[in-house]
Amino acid sequence: MTIFHFISAFFSDSAHWHGYDGIPTRLVEHIEYSLIALGIAGAVGLPVGLLTGHYGRGGNALALLATAARALPSFGLLVLLFVLMGLSKLPVLIPLVVLAIPPILVTTYEAVRTVDPAPVDAARGMGMHQAKVLFQVELPVALPLILSGLRSAAIQVVSTATIAAYVSFGGVGRYIVDGLYQRNYEKVVGGATLVAALALATLGLFWLMSRFAVSRGVRGVRRP
Amino acid sequence: MISIEAVSKRYPDGTVAVDGLSLEIPDRSITVLVGPSGCGKTTTLRMINRMIELSGGRILIDGEDIQHKPVNALRRSMGYVIQNAGLFQHRTIVDNIGTVPRMLGWSKAKARERSMELMERVGLDTSMAKRYPYQLSGGQQQRVGVARALAADPPVLLMDEPFSAVDPVVRRGLQEELLRIQSELGKTIVFVTHDIDEAIRVGDMIAVLRTGGKLAQYAPPDELLSRPADAAVEDFLGADRGIRGLSFFGTEQLPLERNGIVAVDATAAQVAERAADLPQLLVVDVDGRPLGWADAARLRASGARNDTAGLLASGQTFRLGEDSLRVALDCAVLSPTGWAAAVDGEGRAVGVVSQEAIARAIREAHGRRGTAPVDVGAAR
Question: In what order do the strands lie in the sheet with B261-263?
């Protein structure tokens, strides 16, 4: 049996499309975990990155924090938190948030910090308020890079959210964990395929977002 | 009027960028701050709109201390043009120009209308309105930068090395455009450059600063060229300052030989009757346009005889009253006969003048203006 047989067998089994262990349910769960984690990471990483980038300070502290966060193994953190906090969604979400913050924070900081200083100088010289300089001059130009940070965070979160299944939560990881336990490789491969498809869908979504959110004037030029 | 009174800028590390600088910047004229890098010219400019806070002295605009005004209101009352234009690359040209009007609460339609008007004013085709900055050349971007600074019609314009990043030909065009716009709008312009030629070309008044932020000389360009305050200023002005200074003298007073011209179909008798006692005469066509120089004795003997083949090229001509003495002298120096031909607005010859006569006119012009005579040895 090749991997393609596994995949076609998994997806053609109608039992996999219904009920609490059906693909739609697992996908919704998976997306839910990912969105919550990404939402929290964005709520922390974006404002901090924007402000530190705008004022050009705190870069070293950020880099240190990001490196430390990246060094934490998500799986280890999950198990530790599960043992400490018991059965709740928090032990699942915290490792995902910790995973997502560094790319968002660091790229947002870098994106804003490296915006061409000339338009910023011109804007200030025209009497534009600080907040407007940040949101109307720096942010639109920094947006492609900020979106790329969000994108890599999102893809990492989507792929890593499979670990929720280890502590008895749902998501697409369920198929992989259960399949391994039951030695049902059809299920394992099916789950893995779903994760890959979700990651690709995330990529596509961000591509669409940058098409619509980024000004043609910014897309047309290469940043110096 | 902008009064800069004993202004200093000292940084916490002890660097002195500007040291006790005092300047009176007159209204409705272009005042240029020029000097080598590190002379504090940009610092001085940026203290006027408080992009840099001064650490001593004060700056008054129409008698009002700039420190007493809210900083953003102060900045909105001045146009600000920087090197490389600093356009907002995510906004179209029309939106870039409309930035300050929109900040001041104008409606979108009104800001747009104003932007279009300004595009024409600075010599940009309005079909570019919907383009983005990256689609424009450096010179065009700088025009947009000037238009953006003029958008809310501020009385003061601050220009920080605005044309330094474009090539010399484009720079020349932008300088001429600035002078044209200024003749129409009459703004109070403070212009920073490190290029003394640019300073002389655009400035009504020039402040030469020296390293360490001290004023070396503050004078109109012709006075600066004819009477530099010291050796350092003289050195900064560079070679040919005498010749360059002639750009500020008109040709109205030149003693023209109006009889030094003969028509190409003139007979010997007509030549003898008309032409003055000159070694060479300027032959002109039936419309009065210069064709070339011919030997006076030959013309008096045999007439012009429609003979254009035997003429010496008339070379460059100068427009009487419009071109400067510098142009007239240049024509004379380049002429094969040592005489320059003057023409009117339509290109018709009105007279001829020798190098010697131009040299005398230069001395007289200096005498009238009370400036020291320049060395005109090159003219002889």
Answer: B261-263, B280-284, B290-295, B312-313
- DSSP type of residue B152: T
User: Tell me, what amino acid is at B168?
Assistant: P
> Tokens 């997806």 map to which residue?
A11
**Residue contact A119–B83, C-beta within 8 A:** no
**pLDDT tens digits for B187-219?**
999 999 999 999 999 999 999 999 989 999 999
Q: For residue A8, which of A223, A217, A193, A220 has the smallest C-alpha distance?
A: A193
Contact A118/B72, CB-based, under 8 Å? Answer: no
**pLDDT, tens digit (0-9, with 9 covering 90-100), for B60-98:** 999 999 999 999 999 999 999 999 999 999 999 999 999
A74-85 and A90-113 helices cross at what angle (nearest 10)?
A: 140
Q: Judge whether B364 and B254 are in contact, CB under 8 Å.
A: no
Q: By the CB < 8 Å criterion, does B86 face chain A?
A: yes
Q: Are B365 and B285 contacting, i.e. CB atoms less than 8 angstroms apart?
A: no
Homologous superfamily, domain B2-248: P-loop containing nucleotide triphosphate hydrolases (3.40.50.300)
Cβ atoms within 10 Å of B251's Cβ, excluding its own: 24
CA–CA separation, B180 and B193 (whole Å) = 19
CATH architecture of B261-365: Roll (3.10)
How much is the ipTM here?
0.85
pTM of this structure: 0.83
Q: DSSP per residue over B202-255, as a string?
A: H-SEEEEEETTTEEEEEE-HHHHHHS-SSHHHHHHH-TTHHHHHGGGSBSTT--
B315-320 LR contacts (CB < 8 Å, sep 24+)? B315/B341, B316/B340, B317/B290, B317/B341, B317/B342, B317/B343, B317/B347, B317/B349, B318/B251, B318/B342, B318/B343, B319/B343, B319/B344, B319/B345, B320/B251, B320/B252, B320/B254, B320/B256, B320/B344, B320/B350, B320/B351
User: Which of A:51-90 have CB within 8 Å of B?
Assistant: none
Q: Does A220 touch chain B (CB under 8 A)?
A: yes
- Give the domains, in start order, of chain A with CATH numbers: 3-9+22-215 (1.10.3720.10)
Rounded Cα gap, residues B308 and B316, in angstroms: 17
Average pLDDT, chain B: 91
How far is Cα A217 from Cα A207, in angstroms, rounded to an integer? 17
Report whether B324 contacts B297 (CB < 8 A). no
Question: A68-112 pLDDT, tens per residue?
Answer: 888 888 888 888 888 888 888 888 899 999 999 999 999 999 999
Dist. CA B338–CA B331, nearest whole Å: 8
Collect the ranges in chain A with pLDDT lower than 50. Answer: 223-224
Q: Could you tell me if B58 lies within 8 Å of chain A, comparing CB atoms?
A: no
Contact B85 A128 (CB under 8 A): no
Tell me the nearest-neighbour CA distance from A93 into chain B, angstroms: 36
The domain locations on chain B are: 2-248, 261-365
Do the strands B205-210 and B214-219 form a parallel or antiparallel pair, or are they unpaired? antiparallel
Residues 6+ apart with CB under 8 A from A121: B51, B82, B86
Continuous segment of H or E residues that includes residue A64: helix A59-71
Taking CB atoms and an 8 Å limit, are B72 and A216 in contact across chains?
Answer: no
- Which sign, positive or negative, has the C-alpha torsion B136, B139, B140, B141? positive
Do B100 and A126 make contact, defined as CB atoms within 8 angstroms? Answer: yes
Q: What angle do CA A35, A38, A42 make, to 5 degrees?
A: 135
Q: Please tell me what DSSP assigns to residue A10.
A: H
